[in-house]
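Lab meeting, item 3. Inverse folding demo.
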């Protein structure tokens, strides 16, 4: 039987990046959506042909046709809603950040483990076809040593134009609702004035940290941290002796610039990431003996591949590329980065 998908949260990202992609997947059925904004929920249901609309996530979770949910809500509301979904026995894909503290994140992973559920986090860059090619190249280079050993890595994220499309979602003038359960937006030791910047750090810059872990090793340590109140700054992660410097900048004008270069003794592999909402693949460039080779790609979108992978994981009880259990590390690193910067 095809998994019955419920979408919780029908804002721009919920529609454009999730609802549209799950609705286009013939291996599942989007059976219901939920949003506290009734006009928006009705408009989204009409646009995408969704049969049932609920005013709250709890009403949606009472629908026996829903076997898995995608949670795309206000960031501080994500944790409580995911916990309700997991406790109700539903598989979950949630947007990042999964939580604001390691303790919060671990409680969600434990709930998924207790129920034996698929629990994935929306680090869609791991699903990018270009990233998959880079991962294969890196595995070969590590094995054949044709470029020598890895000596360092450098990553960057200069936020700019997000590449969103204006024709595949609907919006209304309704205000974003209040009065819903929210989790604390930072660890107890974090001053109140730091928390908006910490929220921005988790929302924007955790992507490049998660991607660096995917390519270089799952459990780095924080070697250095210099973070501004806005969440921008420079951090250095230590991957078992290989340093990865990450430059993080807010609000750049013009094009979105994000990427990662992994330097070997005799060359390098560079990933140039597309804007987060652009339907493009990551560009991969391999440098060897002064020559640059651009690896050929196709036309695909990381968000579409992420949706397809979640449906497959639910059907086969597979482990997501960005599982909740793995993504706890991103929250733990973020806490360490900010505590080190105090």
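The presenter then showed the designed sequence:
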């Amino acid at each position: 039987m095809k998994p019955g998908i419920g979408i919780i949260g029908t804002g721009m990202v919920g529609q454009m990046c999730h609802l549209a992609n799950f609705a286009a997947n013939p291996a599942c059925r989007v059976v219901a959506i939920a949003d506290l904004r009734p006009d928006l929920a009705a408009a989204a249901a009409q646009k995408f042909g969704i049969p049932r609309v609920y005013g709250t996530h709890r009403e949606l979770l009472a629908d026996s046709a829903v076997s898995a949910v995608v949670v795309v809500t206000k960031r501080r509301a994500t944790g409580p809603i995911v916990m309700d979904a997991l406790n109700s026995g539903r598989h979950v894909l949630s947007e990042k950040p999964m939580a604001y503290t390691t303790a919060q994140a671990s409680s969600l992973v434990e709930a998924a483990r207790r129920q034996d559920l698929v629990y994935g986090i929306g680090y869609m860059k791991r699903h990018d076809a270009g990233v998959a090619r880079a991962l294969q190249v890196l595995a070969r280079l590590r094995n054949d040593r044709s470029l020598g050993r890895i000596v360092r890595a450098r990553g960057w994220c200069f936020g700019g134009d997000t590449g969103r499309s204006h024709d595949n979602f609907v919006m209304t003038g309704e205000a974003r609702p209040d009065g819903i359960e929210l989790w604390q937006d930072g660890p107890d030791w974090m001053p109140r004035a730091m928390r908006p910047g910490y929220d921005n750090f988790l929302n924007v810059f955790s992507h490049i940290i998660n991607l660096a872990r995917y390519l270089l090793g799952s459990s780095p340590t924080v070697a250095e941290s210099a973070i501004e109140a806005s969440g921008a700054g420079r951090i250095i992660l230590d991957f078992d002796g290989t340093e990865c410097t990450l430059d993080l900048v807010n609000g750049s004008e013009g094009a979105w610039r994000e990427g990662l270069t992994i330097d070997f003794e005799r060359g390098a592999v560079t990933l140039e990431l597309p804007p987060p909402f652009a339907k493009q693949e990551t560009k991969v460039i391999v440098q060897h003996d002064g020559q640059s080779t651009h690896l050929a790609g196709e036309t695909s979108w990381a968000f579409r591949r992420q949706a397809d992978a979640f449906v497959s994981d639910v059907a086969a009880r597979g482990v997501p590329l960005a599982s909740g259990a793995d993504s706890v590390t991103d929250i733990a690193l973020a806490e360490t980065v900010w505590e080190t910067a105090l």
